[in-house]
Write a structure and sequence with these properties.
Layout: E1 6-8, H1 16-22, H2 28-33, H3 64-70, E2 75-79, E3 84-88, H4 90-96, H5 105-108, H6 110-114, H7 118-127, E4 131-137, E5 143-153, E6 161-168, H8 170-197, E7 209-215, E8 225-234, E9 237-245, H9 250-267, H10 273-287, E10 293-301, E11 306-312, E12 318-320, E13 326-328, E14 347-350, E15 355-360, H11 372-384, H12 390-400, E16 411-418, E17 430-436, H13 442-456, H14 461-481, E18 486-492, E19 496-503, H15 523-530, E20 533-538, E21 544-551
Antiparallel strand pairs: 1-5, 2-3, 2-6, 4-5, 5-6, 7-16, 8-9, 9-10, 10-11, 11-14, 12-13, 12-15, 15-16, 17-18, 18-19, 19-21, 20-21
């Protein structure tokens, strides 16, 4: 094949014909002898010394065919609009087999179709610009990085062509794929760990509808420490928790898991929210003093119609009324958990029927390009127009705030709805209460009141008898050990009967084993035996509440 017709635009080289034309016909010796005898000898130059030429054949002594034939990489030369094969070197033949010259590449070179290079050849021919594609795989399994360079014909009427240069990068591609696979496995493991530390099934209280979403951030394996939880406290009360351990990685997830477990344990004490955060603050410092965490702990009581909450450096709770008006929790948050030396306080925010509350982590609203208050304001606007079930609201908030799979931070969202019940649904929820006045003679009035209420709610006879027994024991215990004011409350939901007695004494009762000769001390044991669950707590204004629950027959 004659390569003198082609001019490959390779950097630092020239065509041999142009190089021969540029050679001087006057030797240096003759030029020196033509110098006048009386001419002054010029001073020697002080520039860098010339580099001695390397031994071996010069570039001008090699033809294009010699150069391309010696390359270890596959090379092919194509010409014309049909990209007819002009030349393939030995490395190309070894990699893909022999090719017939003069045949269009689309017919003779199936590997170019496998590498999706045929459209690229047309682009290079039209634009006269080199193009490179990286790490393309052929059906045989090898991967190549291919550069297509335009070449011009040396003849005036010759057709331009394309020089195809391929580099085998199979080892690099396989190593990169192994690395990507390893990263995917590590991330899947990390996300699985993170999700295993979150509640698998959210508890669903009688009076609330709740949904939550967790979105891991970014594509690396370093998941964050966002978490949420829903804890039923008994007597219809529910604790709602959301938090965020600063930082990323397994350590943040481990601290998160310990804090979440501690929250569930402390919640069983049924303390006010600010006291729960005080305990968590001490524990967080003991777990890891270098890890900082934020947290909101809120309690919903169906008898009160609001959330009582405390915040440790966390973003404010948002509540959207039925008409779309959004309120922001105003209580100033305390410092994050683990800082110590701070007395947290509790605040309240209304949660009337028909309203929706949202607890969230900073990944939902924090953006590098704007202040976080702007992000919270954007979330308020999104919440005002978000309607539907709690899970639908979760999904709409995620979309409205632009959170995608490539989001650079973890996001946790907890949506709580207090449904407005009407019609047959409302008939399943009732409340009744009686002030216990007059000392010990209040006991028969309490039994009569409980009998009438339970009968009016059309419970089965067995449940009426058990409810009456539990109410009598709780009232007797309060009359004997408590102080005024005293109150008996009965509440029914679609799933349970709740009986609660409050008084002004803050000493909590405890269950103990009564001896056969004891005339008292069996009341709480009886209640604990016949009821589904029971408990006690101190009330915010001083005093206590003792309650028990019975599951309604299905």
């Amino acid at each position: 094949m004659n390569f003198t017709r082609w001019s490959a635009r390779l950097p630092g080289t020239q065509r041999r014909a142009a190089a021969r034309d540029d050679q001087s016909s006057v030797p240096a010796a003759r030029a020196e002898s033509a110098r006048p005898a009386n001419a002054a000898t010029p001073p020697p130059e002080t520039g860098p010394e010339p580099v001695a030429p390397m031994s071996g054949p010069s570039l001008e002594g090699l033809s294009a065919g010699d150069l391309l034939g010696r390359l270890p990489a596959p090379v092919a030369l194509l010409h014309g609009p049909q990209h007819r094969v002009t030349y393939v070197n030995a490395a190309y033949t070894s990699a893909f087999g022999p090719r017939s010259c003069g045949t269009p590449a689309a017919e003779a070179m199936p590997e170019l179709a496998e590498l999706s290079l045929l459209p690229l050849l047309d682009q290079v021919l039209r634009s006269g610009t080199s193009r490179t594609v990286k790490s393309r795989k052929v059906l045989a399994g090898s991967s190549y990085t291919v550069t297509c360079t335009p070449v011009a014909s040396g003849d005036a009427d010759g057709e331009p062509g394309v020089l195809v240069y391929a580099t085998d990068v199979t080892d690099h591609a396989e190593a990169a794929e192994r690395l990507r696979s390893s990263e995917r496995r590590h991330r899947e493991t990390a996300v699985t760990l993170q999700r295993s530390l979150l509640p698998q099934d959210l508890e669903q209280p009688d009076d609330l509808r709740i949904a939550a979403t967790y979105q891991p951030g970014g594509t690396d394996a370093a998941v964050g420490g966002d978490w949420y939880d829903v804890i039923t406290l008994g007597a219809g009360r529910t604790a709602l928790v959301i938090g965020d351990v600063m930082g990323r990685g397994v350590r943040a997830a481990a601290v998160m898991g310990q804090l979440r477990t501690a929250v569930r344990a402390y919640a069983r004490l049924d303390l006010p929210p600010h006291e729960i955060l005080q305990l968590l603050d001490v524990l967080a410092a003991e777990i890891d003093a270098s890890q900082i965490a934020t947290c909101v702990y809120a309690v919903h009581d169906p008898n009160e119609g609001h959330l009582v909450y405390a915040s440790a450096g966390h973003l404010p709770i948002l509540v959207c009324d039925e008409d779309g008006t959004v309120h922001r929790a105003e209580e100033t948050p305390g410092p994050p958990l683990g800082t110590g030396g701070w007395v947290h306080t509790s605040g309240t925010i209304a949660l009337p029927p028909g309203s929706t509350a949202v607890l969230y982590t900073d990944g939902l609203v924090e953006r590098r390009s704007e202040d976080i208050d702007e992000g919270v304001a954007s979330l308020e606007r999104a919440l005002s127009g978000a309607k539907g079930s709690p899970q639908v609201v979760c999904d709409r908030l995620i979309r409205s705030m632009g959170v995608t799979a490539e989001h650079d931070d973890d996001v946790a969202v907890l949506v709580v709805q207090h449904p407005a019940r009407t019609g047959p649904s409302a008939e399943l929820f009732h409340n009744a209460s009686l002030e216990l006045l007059g000392g010990i003679e209040a006991a028969p009035r309490a039994r009569a009141f409980a009998t009438g209420v339970l009968a009016s709610w059309r419970f089965p006879m067995e449940l009426c008898d058990l409810g009456l027994l539990a109410a009598s024991e709780l009232v007797a215990n309060s009359l004997q050990h408590g102080t005024p004011p005293m109150r008996l409350g009965l509440r029914r939901t679609d799933r349970r009967l709740i009986i609660e007695v409050t008084d002004g004494d803050d000493h909590l009762p405890r269950r103990r084993r009564a001896e056969p000769a004891d005339e008292a001390g069996r009341g709480i044991s009886i209640v604990a035996t016949i009821a589904s669950s029971w408990g006690s707590r101190r009330t915010p204004g001083g005093g206590k509440a003792v309650w028990c629950e019975f599951a309604l027959p299905g």
